[in-house]
Write a structure and sequence with these properties.
Elements: E1 43-47, H1 54-65, E2 73-77, H2 88-93, E3 101-104, E4 111-114, H3 116-127, H4 135-165, H5 171-191, H6 205-218, H7 226-229, H8 236-246, H9 249-255
Parallel strand pairs: 1-2
Antiparallel strand pairs: 1-3, 3-4
């Protein structure tokens, strides 16, 4: 591997390489015209079964498990490997071109919601479930919800990218992000030593957000052999929490959700 020399002003390379290199551009916005389908359910969800994507189906299936009215949803596949997220209709919902994105068409004027944590919080507040009303307890849930938004990019975009997707194995990068991934796993394992869920005695949107990344990693179901590489079985409290959530009927349905094609 040749040494990288920093230019005075960075210019995008003609080819990045790797699994996602062909999709990367240094500009935002729509790249092509697109018409997304819309169903009749209150919530229109445009997503994929990735760790970020399943957060929304986890929550919506929990709402359905409670028998709550107006919690039905239509679920559409955004094939991020094909670049569906850069179409004009999707960008109109999420200008950041990331899944998941949702439209709540049960309101007088449709509400767009993007970013997975924002969608979880929106639904929790709308239905008044999976988030405590006590101020201190609510804040603790939000502490962990926002922890997940800050921590998971180091796991996915950092460790996952250099461990699994990068076109070449770079020892420094893998060691750097494996160190951080292990620190995060140890943090969760310690926190879950004397409580069943991350914010206390009740299952909340914080658990949904964290489980989608760290629970799936604990099951070794994100990147091939990543669980073995990080020795996830050694985190016993994390494993117990992972299984507790995996056993929920809504979790099982969320992972088996049927995504409708948009084309």
């Amino acid at each position: 591997m040749s040494e990288y020399h920093l230019p005075d002003v960075w210019q995008a390379p003609t080819a990045m390489g790797g699994a996602w290199g062909g999709l990367n551009q240094p500009t935002a916005g729509a790249r092509f015209d697109q018409t997304l389908p819309k169903g009749t359910a209150p919530f229109q969800v445009y997503s994929l079964g990735t760790p970020n994507g399943i957060k929304v189906t986890l929550m919506l299936e929990e709402l359905k498990e409670l028998g709550l009215a107006n919690a039905d949803y239509d679920l559409y596949r955004i094939a991020i490997g094909d670049g569906d997220q850069f179409g004009s209709d999707f960008v109109a919902i999420n200008p950041n071109s990331k899944i998941p994105a949702m439209i709540d068409q049960s309101e007088k004027k449709p509400v767009r919601v993007f970013e997975s944590a924002s969608i979880l919080l929106y639904l929790a507040d709308k239905f008044n479930v999976f988030i405590p009303q006590d101020w201190a307890q609510r804040t603790e849930v939000l502490n962990w919800l926002f922890w997940s938004t800050g921590a998971a990019p180091f796991l996915g975009g950092g460790f996952g990218h250099f461990f699994h997707y990068a076109p070449e194995k770079i020892g420094y990068a893998i060691d750097r992000f494996a160190m951080e991934a292990k620190r995060q796993l140890d943090l969760l394992d310690k926190e879950l030593a004397d409580k069943p869920y991350i914010a206390g005695s009740d299952y909340t949107i914080a658990d949904m957000a964290i489980w989608s990344w760290y629970g799936r990693l604990a099951q070794d179901k994100i990147w091939t052999d990543a669980g073995k590489f990080l020795d996830v079985q050694s985190y016993k409290n994390l494993q117990a929490w992972t299984q507790r959530i995996a056993d929920r009927p809504a979790t099982k349905r969320a992972l088996e959700a049927n995504y409708q094609d948009i084309k």
